[in-house]
Amino acid sequence: MSILDFAGASHQNINFITNLGHRLYSEDFVRTLDDVFGDSDPSDQANQGLIDQFLRQTLNFEAEQFDGVLVWDVLQYLTPAVLTPTLEKLATIVRPHGYLLAYFHSDEKARQVPFYSFRIKDQQNLLLTQRGTRKPAQIFNNRSLEKLFQKFDSVKFFLTREQLREVIVRR
What we know:
The structure is a single chain. By secondary structure, the chain is of the alpha/beta class. The chain has 5 helices and 8 strands.
């Protein structure tokens, strides 16, 4: 299988995925987001030229190239102007019946949320290391997550101990 990891290159994730016999592509999605739009207010994500540049830098892959995408917690930092084309592109680069794994903070009143580094420890454990805090561009509840992924085949979500919504989406 081919997996895309939005957390950037991580020795642990690379070893885990490749030791299973799969190919892993890494993209530091948040770093590119900050490089293209700056790390200031999310409302700066309205420039169409910058949106196009961001998509070219992060999701410039062939149609149906991936069996899965480790999205982690990055979608909550995108404004609707960037999120909509990002999801459209994800829907094209993931093969039918492929999966996305995403996380969203559950505190709907938070002005700042922890920003994590996700590392796969083993088949049952994921290590989360807080890298700081970020201002979310939008907060998602269960209903808005269903609406966000309405063009995909199925959406399942669970609440973790860290007050994150773990979302598994199937194309």
